[in-house]
Recover the amino acids of this structure.
């Protein structure tokens, strides 16, 4: 009897394998074109590593991955055990990040294999800006290119200036007006500073209509620092 049950389960699994298309992990090529070294970070997939000018780091992210981020850290010092600190984007003093980085950091955000077989991608300045970024499709099935390359640090409002970057209004000021914890908020003069310079990037938490984009699941991507 048990052998019949085993055969039945095997037949079912074989049928599923034959009739359901396979879904592959998305590949992200992360390239540093800045004239200086950055320490790339990626969670939950990847961790982190040093990227000198011209170097590329490739990571894979499985379907179902959500709340994922890729960013650059600057002015870092790490010891042989991978512990140290960064001026911007630091993730609890680890080379291989296990959690999000500290503001300010320009963010590439994504979710893979979501509703209707779509990926959701965006660039966010909600946590501020430290390095110019491009986040785009590397596959023929999607032509989306998102960029934020303005001189945000150089022109940063005085109340948001921090060493190495331009902080976001929420992490800097921590007010309901800027952080939108209630879910009811609109753009502010400070969020508009970012939006005017990078119109395709998130500038405040409810900025979805002009800042959240989709590609078909199965798309591969590239993230470029200083495109």
């Amino acid at each position: 009897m048990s052998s019949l049950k085993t055969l039945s389960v095997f037949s079912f699994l074989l049928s599923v394998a034959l009739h359901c298309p396979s879904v592959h992990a998305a590949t992200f090529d992360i390239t540093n074109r800045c004239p200086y070294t950055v320490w790339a970070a990626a969670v939950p997939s990847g961790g982190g590593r040093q990227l000198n000018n011209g170097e590329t780091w490739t990571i894979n992210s499985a379907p179902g991955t959500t709340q994922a981020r890729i960013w650059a850290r600057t002015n870092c010092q790490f010891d042989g055990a991978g512990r140290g600190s960064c001026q911007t984007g630091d993730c609890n003093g680890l080379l291989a990040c296990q959690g999000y980085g500290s503001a300010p950091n320009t963010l590439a955000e994504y979710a893979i294999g979501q509703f209707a077989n779509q990926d959701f991608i965006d660039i966010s300045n909600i946590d501020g800006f430290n390095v110019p970024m491009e986040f785009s499709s590397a596959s023929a099935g999607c032509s989306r290119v998102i960029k934020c390359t303005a001189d945000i640090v150089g022109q940063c409002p005085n109340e948001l200036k921090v060493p190495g970057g331009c902080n976001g209004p929420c992490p800097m000021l921590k007010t309901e007006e800027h952080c939108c914890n209630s879910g009811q908020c609109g753009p502010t003069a400070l969020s508009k500073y970012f939006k005017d310079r990078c119109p395709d990037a998130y500038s405040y938490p409810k900025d979805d209509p002009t800042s959240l984009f989709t590609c078909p699941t199965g798309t591969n991507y590239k993230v470029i620092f200083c495109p």
